[in-house]
Amino acid sequence: MSTSSLDAYWMPFTANRLFKKAPRMLARAEGMYYRTPEGREVLDGVAGLWCVNAGHGRPKIVKAIAEQAAEMDFAPPFQMGHPKAFELADRLVEIAPKGLNKVFYTNSGSEAVETALKIALAYHRARGEGSRTRLIGRERGYHGVNFGGISVGGIVANRKMFGTLLTGVDHIRHTHDPARNSFSVGQPAHGADLADDLERLVALHDASTIAAVIVEPVAGSTGVLLPPQGYLQRLREICDKHGILLIFDEVITGFGRTGQPFAAQTFGVTPDLMTVAKGLTNGCVPMGAVFAKQAIHDAFMNGPEHLIEFFHGYTYSAHPLACAAALATLETYADDGLLTRATDMQDHFSQALHSLKGLPHVIDIRNIGLVGGIELAARSGEPGKRAFDVFLDCWEQGLMIRTTGDTIALSPPLIIQAEHIDKIVDTLATAIKRVA
Ligand SMILES: Cc1ncc(COP(=O)(O)O)c(C=O)c1O
């Protein structure tokens, strides 16, 4: 391996100084495992970063990317098309919640969020309701890192350094309620009424000023928060009552994570717009997308036919490599039945996870499908440090997890076997006991 000073690379969402003192390097990946440059095996407890749902190094995907690079490296997406972009949209619509039958491509989850927010605003304007300019997010929400996303997002560290953000944004309450719901298996019983907070904002701003509400069906980056039973249904009803669009950000829940292709299907609630990324290409090539209902798309399709209908898009929208990777990814998911496999594995996963109850500092465990959150009590004056120490201990033991605040998040590849689940939980138990 070539050497470098580690100096020039400013790493994203990383404690740069600490990392560069003791780097955690990954060099290879196959199936459920990474390997370090020294050849040490590391079990992947988080599908890379909620991306690699089919496991690493899947041959069909590798081949599709290599062949596409040789056949056609790039095609401009503005006023031009290529067959795989259309074929992929057809395949995506087949597995999407019914009614979400239009697909707009982006290159990441953050871009998908910006795109969905812009579609929502432009849709209302195109229909003659241009007063609907407000966007509503939720406290503790994560919608990527661009300005729209951090404006509707609700994680203070992601917002406080960046000025006034978008104007006209408000937030409904988050759904974390450990007093009533701690150690719930699956959806918590209490808190459907928290959706009524949207009525408070409607009363404050008037529905005629509100364009859309965006939520993650299961919030991931804020520490794995599940929707209380009936909550998403209630949100849907309130949006319908007031003509507000409902956007589900499925960047982490999409592509089988909760036991159905999308969380909208798991929870039986269909949004008007839905953002995806990550699992769309199994993490192999950057790609995101927004699904839209027919009526939203159709509202744009007026005026002279030679005019562009929606002034938005990216140079790399529908990139040929990304489309080839996504098509091969969907095939791989179908070959292995991965889009519903979390349903088969969730009982074992749930039991294993909840066996950690009673270990020191474990104050809550939350899970659905193949997503798990283990919340630890914060050390006094050092928020996030206890979980980070568990992360470091796991890394030393050969397990990659993720932490956010003092919550450990698990989202393993959907190819996981029972013995991997047991290994993850045993390693975590050792780490949690060792890290006081
Ligand atoms: C719900 C949600 N939305 C958006 C994003 C942003 O995606 P990206 O990092 O690809 O921009 C993420 C990333 O974790 C996410 O979890």
TrEMBL record:
GO molecular function: adenosylmethionine-8-amino-7-oxononanoate transaminase activity; pyridoxal phosphate binding
Keyword ATP-binding assigned: no
PROSITE patterns: AA_TRANSFER_CLASS_3
Cofactor: pyridoxal 5'-phosphate
SUPFAM superfamilies in alphabetical order: PLP-dependent transferases (SSF53383)
GO process annotations (BP): biotin biosynthetic process
Family, as annotated: Belongs to the class-III pyridoxal-phosphate-dependent aminotransferase family.
Alphabetically ordered keywords of this record: Aminotransferase, Pyridoxal phosphate, Transferase
Native source species: Aquincola agrisoli
Keyword Amino-acid biosynthesis: no
Coiled coil segments of this chain: none
Protein name: Aspartate aminotransferase family protein
